[in-house]
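Teaching soon. Got one?

===
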Amino acid sequence: MKRIGVLTSGGDAPGMNAAIRAVVRTATANDMSVVGIKRGYNGLLMQNLNPEDDYTLMTARKVSGIVHRGGTVLMTARCKEFLQPKYQQLAIDNMRSLGIEGLVVIGGDGSFAGANALNTLGFPVIGIPGTIDNDLSYTDTTLGFDTAVNTACECVNHIRETSESHERASLVTVMGRGCGDIAIHTALACGAEFALVPEVKWSVEEVAARIKWGVVNGKRSTIIIFAEGAFSSLTSDLPAICERYEALSDIRGDKLTSSKVAEIIEVLSGHETRATVLGYIQRGGTPSAYDRILAARLGSRAVELLRDDRAGLVVGVQENRVIEAPIAEIQGVKRPLNAELKQLVTTLSL
């Protein structure tokens, strides 16, 4: 191959820029040129009047000074149109008109679905896992996960200090709609008492009872790490609980939020409980050294595979070795919960 494309798709993740840099410079070292596609699959559809809004020629110098930057210089977005075969074929036609012979896609499971569609239509694609959720089963870790956990840990450290000063419980919401990895790793690293995740059933009654027990035994603060998807595994009958307690009558029937969960826990435990949502702060910021190194390894390997006319693959890491897997086989396969780490959070919280 003489020319390849690279794009970032879906939610941004720290380390994406480092991966772009690795792709461009490895391609340059192999006498290949690189076209950077802007705003994910939207750029492949070339719907803007100005071509510079859709793609740009990348050079070794153009990616100077981006290895330490969060976000993505190519920008990212989701593209609903790309679900339709006619737009997938249009994307292929557009890439061929630019002389692009292969594509590197940096993103998560949804982005890989688009990459798999292109591969099925005969266009060579390699996927790099870029998602802070760490929810892809074939790789030990994804780009951005380590940074997101470090960011969450730093925030929890600050929250712990003020919680100790006020002798209160704090419920801290982290990202993870379908995967509790950020929550579990953050809880374990910060010494939190709870990691509430979508994969494991839990109840507000149990949380409140353990908070009570902790207070009786001299705990000055309690940290509850709450994955945003943990609402799906809640077993408590909240309407019935709100019916029993007059103090909860104002949230009866309302849409459940982490703040409301904290309020319910406070009433049941009799202990002050406050909620904090970390939100998009976990996606931003300077990528950790680990994520930069991982990005360099995966980005370089992706280009080498296209150079060798191997495609339809995703790259990842297992036991610190760079591996590849067929993109069609990893589609929709989510990472199972690490039960050992989940249990360790509980054991060490006593």
Remarks:
- The chain has twelve helices and eleven strands.
- The mean pLDDT is 96.
- The longest helix spans residues 145-166.
- The radius of gyration is 23 Å.
